[in-house]
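Q: I'm building a small set of examples for a reading group on sequence design. Run inverse folding on the following structure and report the sequence directly after it, with nothing in between.
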């Protein structure tokens, strides 16, 4: 299959699969844009287009740290993921021990508090948090949010994990002073609900991607039991839920199509406030089967990754086209728009070009001397 990219962005394709076993042609378009410094200015294509992500990328050790980027080839997304890999900046660059950060896209918004470094201190009335240390810039990720794993107990059966964020900090199931004293608290928390109890039930506050094995995401992956091994493998289980493909937390998933939106960032850049327009764009995709008529499809925006520290934003569009048999039934896929001349030339040339075996004259056999 030939993929023709008529955009100034990055494109790619892969084969997806439904729980029924039916194969899908998945085409992805990813554009990198420069976040403008002027309020209300439109986005412009970045001179450096980021490549498609082929495997999940983490902030640290894979599986033991927060995910930073997910593979770009999810077969489908029912909603648009909004991801921010960002840092908190104190107003005016002056040291502070707490600052509110937030993002708004159209009518949707999310915000929370970013707090300076603190540790737990045991006392007669239980564990308490030390006063936060002043900061000017603080990284934001699930590694700095409430959560973690409590594995200090000598009996592994008594180990515990905060499954909504097992890579975080601040959570303790057992409160022995030697296990709790000096342990870090999270640097993020809800605006009106500070973290005060290591055994508490707090929302992990971040803008990043949610791990595939965290709650509630892993529950959407379906049931992989003996019946699945005996009767279904290697296909997906019948109870697989496509919500598993969503990388953002539920409160960072927006309805599709998104449309033109105004984006506002608060205390996520050194200047304290950034606002820009995000245009509405639906990517045209033309599929040319080897047999049958051309199919005109539309890829919808379903992933937004904002990285204020790098002054960039990426947007990803996707379309999934069910295949009758396999990928070999597709001759070409055109992503974007081509001029009239290209279409005229294509109509004049049969595709795929037939291969004709022409007879060749046999060379005369050399006579031995």
């Amino acid at each position: 299959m030939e993929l023709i990219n008529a955009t100034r962005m990055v494109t790619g394709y892969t084969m997806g699969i439904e729980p029924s076993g039916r194969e899908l042609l998945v085409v992805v378009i990813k554009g990198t844009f420069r976040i403008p410094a002027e309020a209300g200015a439109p986005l412009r294509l970045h001179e450096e287009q980021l490549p498609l992500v082929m495997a999940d990328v983490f902030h640290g050790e894979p599986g033991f740290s927060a995910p930073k980027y997910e593979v770009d080839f999810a077969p489908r997304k029912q909603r648009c993921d909004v991801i921010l890999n960002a840092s908190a900046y104190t107003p005016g660059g002056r040291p502070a021990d707490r600052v509110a950060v937030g993002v708004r896209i159209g009518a949707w918004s999310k915000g929370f508090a970013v707090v300076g470094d603190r540790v737990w201190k045991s006392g007669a009335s239980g564990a308490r948090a030390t006063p936060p240390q002043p900061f000017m810039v603080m990284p934001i990720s699930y590694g700095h949010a409430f959560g973690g794993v409590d594995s200090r107990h000598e009996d592994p059966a008594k180990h515990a994990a905060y499954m909504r964020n097992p890579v975080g900090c601040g959570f303790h199931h057992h409160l022995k002073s030697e296990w709790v004293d000096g342990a870090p608290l999270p640097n993020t928390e809800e605006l009106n609900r500070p973290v005060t109890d290591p055994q508490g039930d707090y929302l992990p506050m971040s803008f990043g991607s949610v791990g595939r094995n965290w709650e509630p995401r892993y529950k959407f992956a379906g049931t992989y039991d003996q019946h699945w091994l005996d009767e279904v493998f290697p296909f997906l289980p019948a109870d697989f839920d496509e919500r598993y493909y969503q990388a953002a937390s539920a409160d960072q998933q927006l309805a599709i199509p998104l449309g033109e939106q105004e984006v506002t960032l608060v205390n996520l850049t050194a200047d304290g406030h950034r606002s820009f327009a995000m245009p509405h764009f639906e990517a045209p995709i033309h599929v040319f089967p080897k047999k049958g008529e051309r199919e005109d499809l539309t890829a919808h925006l379903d992933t937004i990754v904002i990285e204020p520290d790098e002054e960039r934003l990426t947007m990803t569009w996707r379309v999934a086209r069910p295949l009758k048999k396999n990928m070999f039934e597709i001759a070409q896929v055109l992503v974007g728009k081509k001029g009239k001349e290209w279409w005229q030339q294509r109509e004049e040339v049969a595709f795929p070009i037939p291969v004709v075996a022409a007879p060749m004259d046999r060379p005369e056999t050399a006579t031995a001397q």
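The first strand starts at residue 2 and ends at 6.
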